[in-house]
Specification:
Blueprint: H1 2-19, H2 24-34, H3 38-43, E1 46-50, H4 56-69, E2 73-76, H5 81-94, E3 100-103, H6 122-125, H7 131-147, H8 178-194, E4 200-204, H9 225-232, H10 234-241, E5 246-249, H11 269-279, E6 285-288, H12 294-297, H13 304-312, E7 317-318, H14 323-335, H15 341-357, H16 371-375, H17 379-391, E8 393-397, E9 410-416, H18 421-430, E10 433-437, E11 452-458, H19 471-483, E12 486-491, E13 508-511, H20 517-527, H21 603-606, H22 608-618, E14 624-631, E15 634-642, E16 658-659, H23 663-678, H24 688-691, H25 705-709, E17 726-727, E18 730-731, E19 736-737, E20 746-749, E21 752-754, H26 758-768, H27 780-794, H28 798-810, E22 815-816, E23 831-832, E24 840-841, H29 848-851, E25 862-864, H30 866-877, E26 881-882, E27 885-886, H31 890-896, E28 932-936, E29 940-945, E30 950-956, H32 967-970, H33 973-983
């Protein structure tokens, strides 16, 4: 009987819908709309800013807006995919009506999220001539958005960048002509919307021909209406004709559209309703640009600006600064007759219709399983590589200089401040190439012996970073070009080449647009003829090289590379301020490995390490672990356990990179101190006053180098330098900025930069600190001072010194500031910082003091994996020799591995830690007195025992998500594993 009644009801509803000719979508929209209160309808008009790298209090604020104001959606900014997925599910679960989720993903989710996939910038894609590739890219972007529960990627950008001085669009534009922009935007739009992700063309009516950033002030476009319709609106018209889902309106002053002076286009009825809706007949969703941007927020206050935007014709208000106040203003305006039911119904029903199209009538939460792998599928590399094969542009090829003859004698000269290791490696696969740097070719006659010179200009792969040549670089390039057959390969924005006034001197010029592995590999293959060149300039460089230009070379497959050339999985590199590294990818050769039995160790006993490591992970002492054991210079045990974090289930591998914390003391600072000692530039009796003049005439002037190295100096254990820079628990606005500048150049975390010169204040704090008795007290300050000593003696930064002096020669990938050389997803996070940087710390040094030194502290800052640490420790064990080359004397290592104050109860060597003198200490109590090593705050340890020719490395991120409770140390996990290793020794 119940089934019969249910069938009658369904039939009645279907007949009613058919009678009124209502679609299922419209019926759903009408039902939901009719059930809403006035406040709930108004709430649907707002999408608020959300971050997955902020604290729980931010999530609670979002929950309040969802539950109390019934907002329509969120737009995510910085964070990570795992964290964002959890927040999304939490918010969706709390929302009465499922939320829109948006994110700026102009070149993929990586525009906002770490550990996600990155495609080329739009301007790079402007060089691609095959629109099918861009449509395929749109499909893949949509797949990744769907995986993250995202409905709007707020792209493509359709601004026409016909102003090279544009401070905010630039690389975000496809090019300088309306056709280049419209064709590519249409292709991306088709790809996105084919997978039910809504494209958003922006920034209406056009932000390309401006020299002002609307984040800070109101840009002025003094163009005629005809010009705006012919140029700026052309892409919009083309996309609207092809089913564009949504448009974002910019904050611009356009008198031709809005005669009232100073009214931003985002608040202009004439612009939005009269032109966009009525003239262009656009029926999709209309978003404001972020309403917290100064171009809008200075025109009207919080709440008022939202109402003005709605009255102008916008459907969705983005990034409202005060939603409760705005809703109150809306209700008052409705009651006062400033808008009626029809106006509200128009926007809210449109929003509901798009929610239905997005499938939110049948909402499903995001599945966390395999999230990272799904977002970073290897198959995405195939398309990305095709894009780079189609965008790299040969601008000039005088007398068919390209492709180069692999039999030529070739020199490569590196310019720019970013990494080039992949380019160098690829060049050497084709020909014998000698590598030079700008500092080694001041006199270009050194290049006279070469048939051809390749100059690589490498600039950091950031959309908003400056890519300009320095005057010194331009002069050097001109000198080389005038005297040698020269090919310039520019891994940079096209506009950077506008500074070159001597194109006639260059035999060939290749523009690769970006500096990453894809670009470096493809550029090499084009230079040597393995690939054809297909790209064309999307913008004008100068009168001779204009938009649409490009030399189309055919491939010459007979010129195959020397050796084995394989297309391995590519990893995009997006550094901030990178250091030159030639052998950054030195492989671990097979002869580094052996079996336990061959090295007189009990393999069955070593397997007990698995139990202890897994137990530590199961008990949540740490998310992940790496363990390495080596004997007689051979790795006999190497395993990885657990995941990168509890919220990101990507597994730890042997390649995972860890923040080594205080291991940096013996892996970064100490080797350079020993080098100074080896060279006779310092000795143990050298005093601080003599070594660092700022400490003369202070109570610390007579502290000796030996006392500093052995923590016998009397300095306090620690000074929380960062606390002085906080206001109400957050970084002071007078000392920090969210973007890099000359005045704020010190990066302490993602989107946080410290004021120039603050390191001097830190050193003054040490100088002014209270000096205690000269008894043993472990202090980071000692090693902060050692760094200053090293840098003052060599007049170079510590990171560059240790790289050149040790890491390259030993072929270890130890590094400071790893994000300059690798993607974030390769690095284990160390903490969810809620007290200083207020973000997830991943790829940036965990130690606050080291962060304030730009990631290069004397006491912390080195990153690496277990093999990297092993190589350095084995070098020590070998007495300062690597591959037959002596780098440190055996006497120096012996002097630094001596316990000078054991009789006073101080176990420390000169920089190295030593075994405990009593029952407690850093080791299992089983290591010999001659052994040495160090432990680190993040849960790291390495120990060398010369008596047994043994190296032990333990790495973890036990500080994640919170560093306070050191369960790993309390459980003696590192020491217990070390005990197993010693128990496994057979002779």
């Amino acid at each position: 009987m119940r089934l019969f009644i249910l069938l009658l009801i369904v039939c009645a509803q279907t007949m009613y819908a058919q009678k009124r000719n209502i679609s299922v979508e419209e019926a759903w929209v009408n039902r939901v709309y009719d059930e809403m209160t006035l406040e709930e309808k108004i709430g649907q008009l707002f999408m608020v800013a959300a971050y997955s790298n902020k604290t729980e209090s931010h999530v609670n604020e979002l929950m309040s807006l969802v539950q109390n104001q019934r907002i329509g959606g969120v737009i995510f900014f910085q964070g990570g995919p795992g964290r964002q997925a959890k927040i999304t599910n939490k918010l969706q679960n709390a929302s009465k009506l499922p939320l829109f989720v948006g994110i700026d993903a102009e070149w993929g989710l990586s525009m906002r999220l770490d550990s996600t996939y990155r495609y080329p910038w739009n301007m790079s894609l402007g060089a691609v001539q095959d629109m099918k590739l861009l449509e395929q890219m749109g499909v893949q972007m949509a797949e990744q958005a769907n995986r993250m529960g995202v409905h709007f990627t707020f792209g493509p950008v359709v601004d026409i960048n016909n102003n090279a001085a544009n401070p905010i669009i630039g690389n975000r534009s496809f090019g300088e002509t309306r056709e280049i922009v419209a064709d590519r935007a249409l292709a991306v739009m088709k790809g996105l919307q084919s997978q039910n992700v809504f494209a958003t063309a922006k920034h209406f009516p056009g932000h390309g021909d401006t020299s002002t950033d609307s984040h800070h002030s109101l840009p002025y476009l003094d163009f005629s209406k005809k010009r705006l319709y012919d140029i700026e609106l052309y892409p919009y018209k083309k996309l609207i004709q092809n089913g564009l889902a949504s448009i974002m309106v910019a904050h611009l002053d356009v008198p031709a559209f809005e005669p009232q002076k100073g009214v931003p286009t985002s608040l202009s009825y004439n612009t939005i309703t009269k032109i966009l809706k009525e003239d262009l007949e656009f029926e999709g969703l209309i978003f404001t640009d972020a309403l917290n941007m100064k171009a809008a927020s200075t025109y009207k206050g919080a709440g008022e600006v939202d109402l003005a935007a709605f009255l102008a014709g916008n459907d969705v208000m983005l990034f409202s600064e005060n939603v409760p106040l705005a809703i109150q203003k809306f209700v008052e305006a409705y009651q006062n007759g400033k808008f009626d039911d029809n106006r509200l119904e128009h926007s809210v029903k449109k929003i509901l219709a798009y929610k239905y199209k997005a499938g939110l009538n049948k909402y499903k939460p995001i599945d966390y399983a395999n999230l990272y792998n799904d977002l970073n599928s290897v198959r995405y590399d195939v398309l990305n590589n095709k894009l780079y094969e189609n965008l790299v542009t040969v601008i000039k090829n005088e007398r068919q200089e390209l492709p180069l003859d692999t039999r030529s004698k070739i020199a490569y000269v590196k310019l720019g401040d970013d990494v080039n290791n992949t380019f160098v490696d690829e060049l050497k696969k084709y020909a014998n190439v000698d590598v030079f740097f700008s500092t080694t070719v001041d006199d270009s006659t050194i290049l006279d012996a070469y048939d051809h010179v390749i100059v690589g200009f490498h600039k950091a792969d950031g959309a908003w970073k400056k890519h300009d040549f320095t005057t010194i670089e331009l002069n050097l390039l001109q000198n080389i070009a005038q005297n040698h057959n020269t090919t310039l390969v520019a891994f940079t924005k096209p506009y950077a080449l506008s500074a070159i006034t001597f194109f006639d001197d260059l035999k060939s010029v290749v523009l690769a647009y970006q500096n990453n592995d894809f670009a470096q590999k493809v550029a090499t293959q084009i230079i040597f003829g393995d690939l054809p060149s297909k790209g064309k300039l999307p913008v004008t460089i100068n009168k001779s090289y204009q938009v649409g230009d490009g030399v189309l070379l055919k491939a010459t497959p007979n010129k195959a590379p020397r050796g084995n050339f394989t297309r391995e999985k590519l990893v995009t590199v997006a550094p901030e301020e990178a250091i030159e590294v030639v052998n950054n990818s030195a492989p671990v050769s097979a002869d580094l490995y052996s079996t336990p039995e061959k090295e007189k160790m009990n393999g069955a006993k070593l397997k007990e390490i698995d139990r202890l490591a897994q137990s530590a992970i199961d008990r949540e002492y740490t998310p992940g672990i790496q363990v390495l054991v080596a004997r007689n210079g051979k790795i006999i045990y190497q395993k990885a356990y657990g995941t990168l974090s509890y919220d990101d289930k990507a597994p730890v591998t042997n390649e995972t990179v860890y923040d080594l914390a205080s291991l940096s003391k013996i892996l970064g600072t100490l080797p350079m101190v020993m080098k100074l000692y080896d060279e006779g530039k310092i000795n143990f009796n050298s005093t601080l006053g003599d070594l660092l003049p700022r400490f003369k005439n202070t109570d610390k002037a007579k502290i000796t180098l030996k006392e500093i190295l052995t923590h016998q100096s009397g300095l306090v254990a620690w000074i929380p330098f960062y606390k002085e820079t906080l206001e109400n628990g957050y970084p002071s606005k007078s000392l920090y900025r969210m973007t890099y500048s000359k005045e704020f150049p010190i990066q302490v975390s993602e989107n946080l930069y410290l004021k120039k010169g603050y390191q001097d204040i830190i050193l003054d704090r040490i100088k002014e600190s209270k000096l205690g008795p000269k008894t043993y007290k472990y202090s980071d300050l000692n090693f902060i001072l050692l760094k200053e000593i090293v840098e003052s003696k060599y007049n170079k930064p510590l990171d560059i010194l240790v790289e050149d002096t040790f890491y390259k020669k030993i072929q270890t990938n130890l590094t400071y500031n790893p994000l300059q050389k690798m993607d974030m997803h390769l690095i284990a996070p160390t903490e969810l910082d809620t007290y200083y940087r207020h973000t997830k710390i991943q790829g940036y040094v965990h130690d606050m003091g080291a962060a304030m030194f730009g990631g290069v502290g004397g006491h912390a800052g080195v990153f690496g994996n277990a093999v990297d640490v092993f190589k350095m420790m084995q070098f020590y064990l070998n007495g300062g020799i690597y591959n037959g080359q002596r780098i440190l004397s055996e006497k120096t290592l012996k002097d630094f591995n001596t316990c000078y104050y054991c009789s006073n109860g101080n176990r420390r060597g000169a920089g190295f830690d030593k075994p405990q003198l009593g029952s407690s200490g850093p080791t299992c109590g089983c290591a010999s007195k001659n052994s040495f090593g160090h432990t680190g705050f993040t849960g790291t340890m390495t120990w060398v025992d010369p008596e047994y020719n043994l190296v032990y490395v333990f790495l973890s991120n036990r500080t994640y998500p919170n560093a306070d409770d050191n369960k790993l140390s309390k459980a003696n996990t590192r020491e217990d594993i070390q005990q197993i290793i010693y128990d496994a020794i057979q002779q």
